[in-house]
Amino acid sequence: MTKSVTTEMRGDVAVIWIDNPPVNALSYHVRQGIVAELAAAQSTAKAAVLAGRGGTFIAGADIREFGKPLIDPILPDVLDHVEASGIPVVAVVEGNTLGGGLETALACHYRVAAPKAKLGLPEVNLGLLPGAGGTQRAPRLLPNVADAITLAASGRPISAAKAMDIGLVDQVADDALDAAVKLAEEVAGKNFEDRRLSKVSLAMTPDIEAVFEASLTEVTKKAKGAHAPVRALQSIRNAFEMPFREGMDQERATFKELVVSDQSNALRHIFFAERQSAKPPSDVSGTPRKVAKVGILGAGTMGGGIAMTYAEAGFPVTMLEMSDAALDKGLATMEANWSRGIKSGRITEQGVAERMARLTRTTDYADLADCDLIIEAVFETMEVKREVFKKLDQVAKPGAVLATNTSYLDINEIAAETSRPQDVLGMHYFSPANIMPLLEIVRADKTADDVLLTALDMAKKTRKTPAIARVGHGFIGNRMLTPYLRQANLLILEGASPEQVDKALTDFGWAMGPISVSDLAGLDIGYKSRKDQDLSEHEQRIYTVADRLVEAGHLGQKSGSGFYNYDKATRARSENPEATKIIEEVRAELGINTRAISDEEIVERTMFALANEGAHVLAEGVAQRASDIDVVYNHGYGYPRWRGGPMFYASTVGLKDVAARVMEWSEGSSGVHWTPSDLLMSLADEGKDFGDYDKENT
Ligand code: 3HC
Ligand code: NAI
Q1: Which of 13, 381, 493, 599 would be a feasible disulfide site paired with 504, CB 3.0-4.6 Å?
Q2: 682 phi, psi to nearest 5 deg
Q3: Are residues 75 and 208 in the same domain?
Q4: Closest listed ligand to the CA of 100
Q5: Do residue 126 and residue 221 come from a single domain?
Q6: Atom of ligand 2 nearest to the CA of 521
Q7: Is 51 helix (H, G, I), strand (E, B) or coil?
Q8: Which ligand 2 atom is nearest residue 320's CA?
Q9: Could you list the active site residues?
């Protein structure tokens, strides 16, 4: 194996290079290398520079090593060595300087950053706290403790300019390596004792105490059930209340506790799941088609949001609608949406103008002839979609990718309307499309490899998280929503209140409960779709309450009331007494003997319904991997990230227990609403989980 840490002498300065592609993670051989090379430099050099190859300093500890037996030296010890070095060490902070990478820079005596560097302590995103001195050295370096708290508790990286501003680096230089070598020459042979952060002593003052108190409230609120951010904050507090060494020991102990926690396991699972879901399936080869210009059909809710996504990524976009009035309305909404960000400083007026200038409007299909990718977001009926694709087939240039944003319809049928089904696929965005990160890419039977690769490439270029699905009613996400909402509505009929159902699930960690989501989406949408479908009587019964609400004019948030009443000004929700009355009436009509329902039952019924349907989706090949389903639910539906996803959660509970409950419910009085998945049952029988399934099948 080639050495991952090497030294190059520049005069009297030893430049110690870390070379561990792709991100220079601190794998055990890197840790060993840093210690060995720095030890050698003590006798050969007057100063050292620590730098990373490939434009990145160090993106953190090697996450793949977590959960495995530790190989010495552990990072905190390596960094003690660095800090205790007899010669000054200057870090070249370039590219991603994250987690253990930033902690390494903090153990060095000086830090020089490149202008494009990103510095951060993202450990909380993995359910951890900085575990190699980050919570002890950062508050000793930064004049304002709030900056250390934000770095460690938010997990968000900052720019080099901001790092300079808050005192995290000593210099920002275009040629950071050159500047670091110069600085090393300057400080060589001089006293640098005051640069050893472990020697700095801190004391708690009333002002600092006030910062901690305010931060605790804010961090707890933002964490939404995740443990790590608060633990990171507490560890920073230790820096003011105990000596450095004791603070380090506490930090280490917390790190060790968190690294084996369910939350950290779940967050690491989703970190790797996201990267996996963005990769092409193994049977796909080739290169993406070139996309310079994008066409979008429909300037409604979805078309507008999708157009914003592409315009934000710098693509020129042609928007086609049925009338000028529809275009006026759609473009005005987009402009208003962007302009909302001006006040908060997210965007400038000029930024809005630049984005608007990327949009061209038309009612003429011929104007789509120069588009390389055309995404359809018109009304959700097969008739309209067919007509649209027929027309697209006549005008689109050869090789243009033709995508539909349909939520449920059969994309093979849509593709068959064209003479080029190989160019057709689903690109299913989520509302609001400019904000929601998920892109479900639906690979139809005849979709060409390079068309699929183009959609994946577009996801990357527009900063979306993709997951690939196959054709099937509702693909992955919406298909699974049906049994989830079915259970939520059944629970209300059986005795739970809408508030109880929502609260049990927001307490579980969901961004919103299912009943609030239904009110937000509009109860009339489900109503219309149920009228269009030939639902069985027992299925129809479940939605009697929702249907009666619609018929009484309670359409959800848009009409001011649905399952809940909504305050016009604040949108704050309260009980809707009319809904309560309707619920009671329906329960009586259906002859249901209500009972007290526990929050635990609400969570189990809804979450296991998701996992059971997810297993059907897997077995049918609509999803390739259980981990893709987790990505879909995290990025498209507000599932709590720290639980990993519906499939990972079921595995955490234990598939044996999940399968037993599903079986029990399927044999009970509401059994008609359950179709136990054979795959779930067989994995449970074999003592396996969805992680095993993914390993064996991909
Ligand atoms: N350890 C191991 N592998 C890592 C890694 C890490 N810290 N960071 C990234 N990788 C891998 C990815 O899994 C991916 O592998 P693959 O090609 O086999 O799928 C590859 O590196 C490239 O990663 P990305 O696709 O994410 O590349 P990007 O350029 O889009 O992003 C990045 C780069 C911003 C560095 C992003 O990978 C990232 O955020 N990484 C995690 C950073 C992090 O969380 N660091 C803290 C780790 S915990 C820690 O340091 C504990 C310490 O306090 C003790
Ligand atoms: P919408 O009703 O807000 O917008 C549809 C737009 O398409 C309207 O502005 C209409 O004038 C236009 N349109 C209709 N027929 C047209 C045609 N032949 N040519 C050009 N324009 C035409 O609907 P929405 O919500 O934007 O949905 C669009 C598509 O996106 C549907 O297929 C829907 O299922 C899907 N979708 C919707 C989501 C949502 O949350 N609203 C989420 C994901 C997908």
Answers
A1: 599
A2: -75, -35
A3: yes
A4: 1
A5: yes
A6: 40
A7: strand
A8: 20
A9: 103, 123
